[in-house]
Amino acid sequence: MLKRQSVLASVGLFLLIFVSILFVYTSETNSDTHVVQQNQQQSSTFVPDAPNFQSNDKIIMDAMGNQTERAELGRATWKFLHTMMARYPEKPSKEERKSLHDFMMLFSTLYPCGECANHFNKLITTYPPQTSSRFSASQWLCAMHNKVNERLKKPIFDCNDIESKYPCGCATTPSENDSPSSLA
């Protein structure tokens, strides 16, 4: 009789554990399914407004308090942007032109320094990005860089020399892409 009670208790305990695991598993699956369904509903009904690039209320970052980090960010940003313009196609397609324009407009709202983003947003609202060629894009960015430098009372760059200051790093032959200096 004792053996029979042990077997029944073991079977009962096993069933309790099995049902508990089953309950936990199905509730997590239902919860995950609910979240997925909720996200699908939100994504299917979410239609972003057309971006209003003319408005400074789109700046989403706060001002940067640390001036050293702000200066480092600025130098890195200008290096990145000038290099990007140096690599921009000489004869861009409509899609490439739109991509550059949209990038610059969005960049002016997402820049990590809110105060800088606000100033740059005002600049590109007044002087929209020039995207018709590599030359026009690099000259436009140089002019914007000089506008920022004027405001910060920094030296003005000679825009005629901008290509030598920020070379594109473009390879003229396929083997140049594999050189050790191109990997750094």
UniProtKB/TrEMBL annotation:
Keywords, ordered alphabetically: Disulfide bond, FAD, Flavoprotein, Membrane, Oxidoreductase, Transmembrane, Transmembrane helix
One Gene Ontology cellular component annotation held by this UniProt entry: mitochondrion
Record's catalysed reaction(s): 2 R'C(R)SH + O2 = R'C(R)S-S(R)CR' + H2O2
Listed EC numbers: 1.8.3.2
Domain ERV/ALR sulfhydryl oxidase: 66-166
Cofactor(s) recorded in Swiss-Prot or TrEMBL: FAD
Organism per entry: Mucor circinelloides f. lusitanicus
A GO term, aspect molecular function: flavin-dependent sulfhydryl oxidase activity
PROSITE patterns noted in UniProt: ERV_ALR (PS51324)
Identification of the protein by name: Sulfhydryl oxidase
Classification lineage: Eukaryota, Fungi, Fungi incertae sedis, Mucoromycota, Mucoromycotina
Gene3D superfamilies from the UniProt entry: ERV/ALR sulfhydryl oxidase domain (1.20.120.310)
Membrane-crossing residue ranges in chain numbering: 7-25
